[in-house]
Amino acid sequence: MRILASLNDLFETIRSVLPLAIILVLFQLIVLKKPLRNTREFVIGILLCVFGLHFFLKGVFMSLHPLADSVGGNLVVLKHKWSIIAAVFAIGYCGTLVEPALKTLALEVEEVSIGAIPHKTLIHAVAIGFGIGMGIGIYKILNNISYAKVIIPLLLLILTLIFFTPDEFISIAMDSASATTGPVNIPINMAIAIGLAKMLENVDPLAYGFGIIGLTSTGAVISVLILGILTKL
User: Which spans are transmembrane here (predicted)?
Assistant: First the structure.
């Protein structure tokens, strides 16, 4: 049964990757009428992509996801709320540093900006914002605060910062927020938030455990906008 389950998971990964690859190949050959540069390398790359993604996701849901759920549930043993917030900030910050999508984006930004925006600077700025957003989300859960009361002031802050931020950083901020929602951060941070919400009295995990990813993305946007203002100054 385990073998069949593993094969089924692998098939699901293939169903996710292969249609996209086929669409791109057909578009390249039929619409653009351009040949594939290296067919052998392309096929090997697709196989590596399928198996790499399969084993990565399998590893995340076998190890990091249940561990994060356990950590979230046990955060209540910490005596002070601010110590819980500091802990989740550190987890969010470190998790963002290893997010592959963010690293790819940061390298592209550094290349296009001809080194004016170093990739490490952007990654750490996004990680700080993500960690702060994670802390705000956990603060919301601990104090049973509705989502609207938290997200509306943050959105107003973003709209205010946009007027003072260089245009290029506004675009980068939006993409940075999306880049943080990758295969590392989402399982870990969502599991922590839901695990914590399940352990608190008078807290509905469905109403308060979710929404944490949106807040972390909002924090990432704010941090990059501030980085743009500081660069301008």
Answer: 14-32, 44-62, 82-102, 122-141, 147-165, 206-230
Phi, psi values for residue 162, rounded to 5°: -60, -35
Q: Distance between CA atoms of 220 and 210, rounded to whole angstroms?
A: 18
Instruction: Say whether pLDDT at 188 is over 60.
Output: yes
Owning domain of residue 19: 1-59
pLDDT at 198: 80
> Taking Cα atoms as reference points, which of 185, 58, 78 lies closest to residue 126?
185
Query: CA of 33: how far to CAs of 25, 26, 46, 111, in Å?
Result: 10, 9, 21, 29
- Triad 157, 160, 161: Cα angle to 5°: 85
Q: Which residues are CB-contacts of 70 (< 8 A; sequence separation ≥ 6)? A: 195
**CA-to-CA distance for 231 and 165, rounded, in angstroms?**
9
Tens digits of per-residue pLDDT, 129-173? 999 999 998 888 888 888 888 899 999 999 999 999 988 899 999
Residue 24 identity (one-letter amino acid)? L
